[in-house]
Give the backbone structure.
Amino acid sequence: MTTIPETWTIRPAREQDMPLLAEIYLSVRRQTFLWVDPSHFNLEDFAVHSAGERLLVCEDLHGLIAGFAALWDADDFIHMLYILPAFQGRGAGKALLAALPDWPKRRYRLKCLVKNTHAMAFYRALGFEIIGDGASPEGDYKEMRLRGIQSL
């Protein structure tokens, strides 16, 4: 059996995408961060948490939005990478990362919640290394940085 890799389109987010991106942000957080009271997550969080960031959208062949990434360019900081569960494990997250400016030459950083073991494994497999620890309202996290030139 031959598997055919999916083709993704990565593009800048448009104003008309914002309501759907807010829905994705809310639903994925509620489905993933099960250790946090879901009432702590609100639809309005997306606009506040992504203010001033570069937003990239990942679409499948049919134009369905699979997820998004938010980048704080000034610090090469990947603030958010959220993929709908139906699209997870199919390359959408990798496609979003590969579309970042100068990927993989720039040593991008991010924070990943320790209890989000699936995401921790994803980032480690892509060449991110742990460079620090911290705590947030959602729990303890690891600060991670891309180890130099990698390939997806």
